[in-house]
Amino acid sequence: MNLSVCTITFRHQLISIAEIAKWSVANGFQGIELWGAHATNLEDQPEYGKEWLSSYALKTSMLSDYLPLFEGNDALYFKVHRLCRLAKHWGATKIRTFAGNEGSAAIPEDRKTLLFERLQLVCDWLSDYGLNLVIETHPNTYADSVGSTIELFEKVNKDNLQLNYDVLHVWESGADIISSCEQLAPYINHFHFKNISSSKHLSVFAPDNVYAAAGSREGMVPIFDGAVDYQRFIEYLYSKTTLRNIDSSLEWFGNNCKNILSQDRYKLQKMSQAATTAQAI
């Protein structure tokens, strides 16, 4: 499994990209998922980029940001092309965004049509750079269910549109995480792993809370300690040759970052070793 650390984990800490890189490689990660805000803030330090990161035997697995899909074309064009330049500088092949900010059951038909058209446009712009656009499964977006996500991919119909399968958010929708993964597998090129102690705490991942320095972190737990059955899901991934080597990120928003991430990384590594041994027998 090609596993990344999300730099958004350290959004409220005084920690440099160099420290993140050193810690990541020391703890067995293969890459970093670079938050767009961090990439933008490092623009005036061009010595940091793909060559620098490769000196640590790391790669930028994905540049994660938020596109203004419903703003004017000029604003969208500026944001997309800036992110494309940053992605190329960091050696990322994909840019992650969300499918709007309205649930699939609530969005008006004209807004849905516009959403699909804007995503087609963004895909065309990214194609000029040889980049992929990655949509994340997420509540209160059009990719909030298996059916609407499949519809989105069919309507946009672009080869460089791909999917970030956020396991927790698929579980949050009420869908089975393994059967959903089977259905969405043709589109998946990234996984997000995070967990929660109980569904009653899911509100901690609401943007207004999770990005606030003083926001609640109640219910955020290591991936193998929560309500989502990651033991079963990871075993399933390791059983699938088409899925087990897809880029994945540990998306931790809580406290005690380094200890939690190293703990989860260690357990995933043990599962990988066990799966490799079983397949060799």
Automatic annotation (TrEMBL):
Record carries keyword Zinc: no
Keyword presence, Metal-binding: no
Coiled coil ranges: none
Source species, domain of life: Bacteria
Domain Xylose isomerase-like TIM barrel: 24-256
Organism name: Alteromonas macleodii (strain English Channel 673)
Keywords: Isomerase
InterPro entries linked: IolE/XylAMocC-like, Xyl_isomerase-like_sf, Xyl_isomerase-like_TIM-brl
Protein name: Xylose isomerase
Gene3D superfamilies from the UniProt entry: Divalent-metal-dependent TIM barrel enzymes (3.20.20.150)
MF annotations from Gene Ontology: isomerase activity
